[in-house]
Predict the 3D structure of the following.
Amino acid sequence: MAITVLEALKAAEKRLTEVPDPRLDAEYLLAEVLGVSRLQLLLDKRREMTDKESAHFEALIVRREKREPLQYILGNQSFMGFSFQTDSRALIPRNDTEALCEEALRHIKPGDRVLDLCTGTGALAIAIKKLCPGAQVTATDISEEALSLARENAETLNADVRFLLGDLMAPLAGEHFHVIVSNPPYIPDCLRDALQEEVKREPALALFGGKDGLDFYRRIAKEAPKHLTVGGRLCLEIGDGQADTVAGLLKDQFEDIQILNDLNGLPRVVSAKRILRCVMQIGK
Protein backbone atom coordinates (compact mmCIF):
# COMPACT_ATOMS: atom_id res chain seq x y z
CA MET A 1 0.00 0.00 0.00
CA ALA A 2 1.35 3.39 -1.02
CA ILE A 3 2.13 5.89 1.72
CA THR A 4 2.13 9.66 1.55
CA VAL A 5 5.07 11.99 2.06
CA LEU A 6 3.63 13.03 5.43
CA GLU A 7 3.28 9.42 6.59
CA ALA A 8 6.82 8.62 5.49
CA LEU A 9 8.19 11.63 7.37
CA LYS A 10 6.36 10.75 10.57
CA ALA A 11 7.58 7.15 10.48
CA ALA A 12 11.16 8.22 9.79
CA GLU A 13 11.10 10.78 12.59
CA LYS A 14 10.17 8.07 15.08
CA ARG A 15 13.09 5.92 13.92
CA LEU A 16 15.65 8.72 14.10
CA THR A 17 15.13 9.72 17.72
CA GLU A 18 18.86 9.24 18.47
CA VAL A 19 20.01 11.87 15.95
CA PRO A 20 20.08 15.59 16.84
CA ASP A 21 17.36 16.76 14.39
CA PRO A 22 15.26 13.75 13.39
CA ARG A 23 12.46 15.55 11.53
CA LEU A 24 14.81 17.90 9.68
CA ASP A 25 17.06 15.03 8.60
CA ALA A 26 14.06 13.02 7.43
CA GLU A 27 12.89 15.96 5.34
CA TYR A 28 16.29 16.45 3.70
CA LEU A 29 16.61 12.75 2.93
CA LEU A 30 13.13 12.45 1.46
CA ALA A 31 13.63 15.60 -0.62
CA GLU A 32 16.77 13.96 -2.00
CA VAL A 33 14.86 10.79 -2.87
CA LEU A 34 12.07 12.70 -4.64
CA GLY A 35 14.42 15.13 -6.36
CA VAL A 36 12.69 18.22 -4.99
CA SER A 37 13.60 21.05 -2.63
CA ARG A 38 12.76 20.70 1.04
CA LEU A 39 10.24 23.55 0.64
CA GLN A 40 8.51 21.79 -2.24
CA LEU A 41 8.44 18.60 -0.21
CA LEU A 42 6.63 20.36 2.63
CA LEU A 43 4.11 21.86 0.19
CA ASP A 44 3.22 18.46 -1.21
CA LYS A 45 2.80 16.30 1.90
CA ARG A 46 -0.18 14.40 0.49
CA ARG A 47 1.77 13.08 -2.46
CA GLU A 48 1.83 9.29 -2.62
CA MET A 49 5.22 7.66 -2.96
CA THR A 50 6.04 4.85 -5.37
CA ASP A 51 7.46 1.56 -4.15
CA LYS A 52 10.83 2.49 -5.64
CA GLU A 53 10.85 5.83 -3.81
CA SER A 54 9.87 4.16 -0.54
CA ALA A 55 12.66 1.58 -0.88
CA HIS A 56 15.22 4.30 -1.63
CA PHE A 57 14.07 6.34 1.35
CA GLU A 58 14.25 3.26 3.59
CA ALA A 59 17.85 2.66 2.55
CA LEU A 60 18.84 6.24 3.44
CA ILE A 61 17.03 6.13 6.78
CA VAL A 62 18.90 2.93 7.68
CA ARG A 63 22.20 4.71 7.02
CA ARG A 64 21.15 7.67 9.15
CA GLU A 65 19.99 5.37 11.95
CA LYS A 66 23.56 4.09 12.06
CA ARG A 67 24.63 7.74 12.62
CA GLU A 68 26.32 8.20 9.26
CA PRO A 69 26.53 12.00 8.84
CA LEU A 70 23.67 13.51 6.87
CA GLN A 71 26.14 15.34 4.59
CA TYR A 72 27.85 12.07 3.66
CA ILE A 73 24.50 10.50 2.79
CA LEU A 74 23.40 13.48 0.72
CA GLY A 75 26.87 13.81 -0.76
CA ASN A 76 27.07 17.58 -0.53
CA GLN A 77 27.32 20.55 1.80
CA SER A 78 26.90 24.26 1.14
CA PHE A 79 29.78 26.59 2.03
CA MET A 80 29.94 30.30 1.18
CA GLY A 81 27.13 29.79 -1.33
CA PHE A 82 28.84 26.94 -3.19
CA SER A 83 27.92 23.25 -3.11
CA PHE A 84 30.80 20.96 -2.17
CA GLN A 85 30.90 17.21 -2.62
CA THR A 86 31.26 15.51 0.75
CA ASP A 87 32.19 11.96 1.69
CA SER A 88 34.29 10.10 4.23
CA ARG A 89 37.57 11.20 2.60
CA ALA A 90 37.47 14.57 4.36
CA LEU A 91 35.97 16.61 7.17
CA ILE A 92 32.54 18.08 6.45
CA PRO A 93 32.70 21.88 5.90
CA ARG A 94 30.97 23.74 8.75
CA ASN A 95 29.02 26.97 8.51
CA ASP A 96 31.11 28.31 11.40
CA THR A 97 34.17 28.17 9.16
CA GLU A 98 32.60 30.82 6.91
CA ALA A 99 33.77 33.36 9.51
CA LEU A 100 37.35 32.30 8.74
CA CYS A 101 36.79 32.58 5.00
CA GLU A 102 35.23 36.04 5.33
CA GLU A 103 38.11 37.29 7.47
CA ALA A 104 40.68 36.03 4.97
CA LEU A 105 38.81 37.65 2.07
CA ARG A 106 39.03 41.03 3.83
CA HIS A 107 42.81 40.90 3.42
CA ILE A 108 43.05 39.43 -0.09
CA LYS A 109 43.32 41.49 -3.26
CA PRO A 110 43.80 40.41 -6.89
CA GLY A 111 47.28 39.09 -7.50
CA ASP A 112 47.85 38.03 -3.89
CA ARG A 113 49.23 34.57 -3.15
CA VAL A 114 47.03 32.67 -0.70
CA LEU A 115 47.78 29.41 1.13
CA ASP A 116 45.20 27.12 2.73
CA LEU A 117 46.67 24.56 5.15
CA CYS A 118 44.78 21.32 5.95
CA THR A 119 42.42 21.97 3.06
CA GLY A 120 40.22 18.85 3.39
CA THR A 121 37.38 19.18 0.87
CA GLY A 122 39.07 22.29 -0.49
CA ALA A 123 36.15 24.44 0.68
CA LEU A 124 38.22 27.36 1.96
CA ALA A 125 40.68 27.46 -0.94
CA ILE A 126 38.00 27.06 -3.60
CA ALA A 127 35.62 29.59 -2.05
CA ILE A 128 38.45 32.13 -1.83
CA LYS A 129 39.36 31.56 -5.48
CA LYS A 130 35.73 31.85 -6.60
CA LEU A 131 35.13 35.03 -4.60
CA CYS A 132 38.49 36.60 -5.45
CA PRO A 133 39.32 35.18 -8.89
CA GLY A 134 42.51 37.24 -9.20
CA ALA A 135 44.11 35.54 -6.19
CA GLN A 136 46.69 32.78 -6.69
CA VAL A 137 45.53 30.03 -4.34
CA THR A 138 47.52 27.04 -3.10
CA ALA A 139 46.24 24.37 -0.72
CA THR A 140 47.99 21.54 1.11
CA ASP A 141 46.89 18.46 2.98
CA ILE A 142 48.68 15.41 4.36
CA SER A 143 45.85 13.14 3.23
CA GLU A 144 45.91 11.88 -0.36
CA GLU A 145 42.22 10.97 -0.04
CA ALA A 146 41.26 14.48 1.07
CA LEU A 147 43.24 16.00 -1.79
CA SER A 148 41.51 13.76 -4.31
CA LEU A 149 38.16 15.06 -3.06
CA ALA A 150 39.41 18.65 -3.06
CA ARG A 151 40.54 18.32 -6.68
CA GLU A 152 37.14 16.92 -7.66
CA ASN A 153 35.44 19.89 -6.00
CA ALA A 154 37.76 22.34 -7.74
CA GLU A 155 37.03 20.76 -11.11
CA THR A 156 33.27 20.78 -10.52
CA LEU A 157 33.32 24.43 -9.43
CA ASN A 158 35.83 25.46 -12.10
CA ALA A 159 38.31 26.83 -9.56
CA ASP A 160 41.99 27.07 -10.49
CA VAL A 161 43.60 26.03 -7.21
CA ARG A 162 47.03 24.38 -6.85
CA PHE A 163 46.82 21.37 -4.52
CA LEU A 164 49.97 19.89 -2.95
CA LEU A 165 50.39 16.77 -0.85
CA GLY A 166 52.36 17.30 2.35
CA ASP A 167 52.42 18.10 6.05
CA LEU A 168 51.45 21.77 6.49
CA MET A 169 54.13 23.88 4.71
CA ALA A 170 56.53 21.03 3.94
CA PRO A 171 55.92 21.15 0.14
CA LEU A 172 56.45 24.95 0.02
CA ALA A 173 60.16 25.49 0.62
CA GLY A 174 61.15 29.01 -0.42
CA GLU A 175 57.60 30.12 -1.23
CA HIS A 176 55.91 33.15 0.33
CA PHE A 177 52.26 34.16 0.58
CA HIS A 178 50.30 37.30 1.35
CA VAL A 179 47.64 35.39 3.33
CA ILE A 180 47.74 32.00 5.05
CA VAL A 181 44.50 30.44 6.29
CA SER A 182 43.92 27.21 8.15
CA ASN A 183 41.23 25.24 9.90
CA PRO A 184 43.60 22.70 11.47
CA PRO A 185 42.73 19.70 13.67
CA TYR A 186 42.08 21.16 17.11
CA ILE A 187 40.09 18.69 19.22
CA PRO A 188 42.04 17.47 22.28
CA ASP A 189 42.76 13.74 22.20
CA CYS A 190 41.03 13.26 25.55
CA LEU A 191 37.67 14.21 24.01
CA ARG A 192 37.76 11.43 21.44
CA ASP A 193 35.16 9.27 23.19
CA ALA A 194 32.90 12.22 24.03
CA LEU A 195 32.32 13.30 20.45
CA GLN A 196 28.95 13.09 18.74
CA GLU A 197 28.59 9.79 16.92
CA GLU A 198 28.42 11.54 13.56
CA VAL A 199 31.72 13.34 14.17
CA LYS A 200 33.38 10.03 15.01
CA ARG A 201 32.62 8.96 11.43
CA GLU A 202 34.77 11.77 10.03
CA PRO A 203 38.53 11.30 9.47
CA ALA A 204 40.39 11.32 12.79
CA LEU A 205 43.38 12.83 10.99
CA ALA A 206 41.33 16.00 10.46
CA LEU A 207 39.95 16.19 13.98
CA PHE A 208 42.55 15.70 16.69
CA GLY A 209 45.27 18.18 17.56
CA GLY A 210 47.23 16.38 20.26
CA LYS A 211 46.90 16.19 24.03
CA ASP A 212 45.55 19.74 24.42
CA GLY A 213 44.41 20.26 20.82
CA LEU A 214 47.06 22.90 20.17
CA ASP A 215 49.81 20.95 18.40
CA PHE A 216 49.05 22.36 14.96
CA TYR A 217 48.79 25.93 16.21
CA ARG A 218 52.24 25.67 17.77
CA ARG A 219 53.68 24.42 14.49
CA ILE A 220 51.90 27.02 12.39
CA ALA A 221 52.96 29.84 14.74
CA LYS A 222 56.58 28.73 14.28
CA GLU A 223 56.54 27.97 10.56
CA ALA A 224 54.11 30.52 9.08
CA PRO A 225 56.41 33.57 9.48
CA LYS A 226 58.92 31.94 7.13
CA HIS A 227 56.24 31.82 4.42
CA LEU A 228 54.50 35.18 4.89
CA THR A 229 55.42 38.33 2.99
CA VAL A 230 56.01 41.63 4.76
CA GLY A 231 52.80 42.47 6.59
CA GLY A 232 51.26 39.15 5.58
CA ARG A 233 48.13 37.95 7.36
CA LEU A 234 47.57 34.65 9.19
CA CYS A 235 43.94 33.57 9.79
CA LEU A 236 43.17 30.53 11.94
CA GLU A 237 39.97 28.82 13.00
CA ILE A 238 39.97 27.87 16.67
CA GLY A 239 37.97 25.59 18.93
CA ASP A 240 36.07 26.32 22.13
CA GLY A 241 38.22 27.96 24.79
CA GLN A 242 41.32 28.17 22.58
CA ALA A 243 41.20 31.82 21.43
CA ASP A 244 43.42 33.42 24.07
CA THR A 245 45.97 30.61 24.03
CA VAL A 246 46.31 30.63 20.24
CA ALA A 247 46.57 34.43 20.24
CA GLY A 248 49.33 34.10 22.83
CA LEU A 249 51.27 31.72 20.61
CA LEU A 250 51.42 34.43 17.94
CA LYS A 251 52.41 37.42 20.05
CA ASP A 252 56.18 37.17 19.50
CA GLN A 253 56.12 37.37 15.71
CA PHE A 254 52.72 38.90 14.92
CA GLU A 255 50.85 42.12 15.64
CA ASP A 256 47.28 43.37 15.20
CA ILE A 257 46.11 40.10 16.74
CA GLN A 258 42.32 39.89 16.64
CA ILE A 259 39.82 37.36 17.97
CA LEU A 260 36.66 37.25 15.86
CA ASN A 261 33.28 35.64 16.55
CA ASP A 262 31.18 33.41 14.32
CA LEU A 263 27.47 33.94 13.63
CA ASN A 264 26.64 32.33 16.98
CA GLY A 265 28.70 34.95 18.80
CA LEU A 266 31.41 32.45 19.77
CA PRO A 267 35.15 33.10 19.32
CA ARG A 268 36.01 31.29 16.09
CA VAL A 269 38.92 33.03 14.34
CA VAL A 270 42.31 34.39 15.34
CA SER A 271 43.70 36.84 12.78
CA ALA A 272 47.18 38.40 12.96
CA LYS A 273 49.67 40.38 10.84
CA ARG A 274 53.29 39.40 10.45
CA ILE A 275 55.57 41.82 12.28
CA LEU A 276 57.70 43.78 9.83
CA ARG A 277 60.90 43.77 11.89
CA CYS A 278 60.87 39.96 12.25
CA VAL A 279 60.30 39.43 8.55
CA MET A 280 63.26 41.68 7.79
CA GLN A 281 65.45 39.48 9.96
CA ILE A 282 65.00 36.60 7.53
CA GLY A 283 65.61 38.78 4.53
CA LYS A 284 62.07 39.46 3.34
In short: The longest helix spans residues 51-65.
